[in-house]
Structure formats: structure tokens, C-alpha cells
Amino acid sequence: MKSIQITVDEEILSELDEETEVKLEGRSSVIRRLLRQYLSERRGARIREAYQKGYGSTAEESETSELAEWEKEQVWPE
Questions:
Q1: If both were cysteines, with which of 4, 45, 61, 72 could 57 make a disulfide (CB 3.0 to 4.6 Å apart)?
Q2: Does residue 68 lie in a domain region?
């Protein structure tokens, strides 16, 4: 592990220090967990963006447009 120095508003630090998790686990542990969560969310967002860019639309939109084309082809009995 590597120590880093960050600047945090005193108000945020006070609020953080009041949390039970911080009292039990310590600031560093909680901040590491939050950073992992943030990075995981960002990675997920990048993957979703790549899928949308690659496929041009969401899966639901693709299914809807494909079904719309088939509806033009169907013949109902009279």
C-alpha cells in the first residue's frame, strides 16, 4: 500500500468521522472501499458506453425495431 496526501474540506471530514463505519474501521479503510466502488462504477459506465457505441442502440431498441420490420411481413387470416 502507498500513502497519499489529499485535501478534504473540514466539514466533509467531520461528517465522515461521525460515521460508525469510520469509527470501527478507520478513515483509510472506508475511503479505499469508496474508491473501489467509484472505480467499479466508472468501469461499468465505460463498458456500457462501448456497447452503445458498438451496437448503436440499446438491446431493447434493437428488438423493437426488428419486430417492427416483421410486423410488416405478417399476414392475418381473414
A1: 61
A2: yes
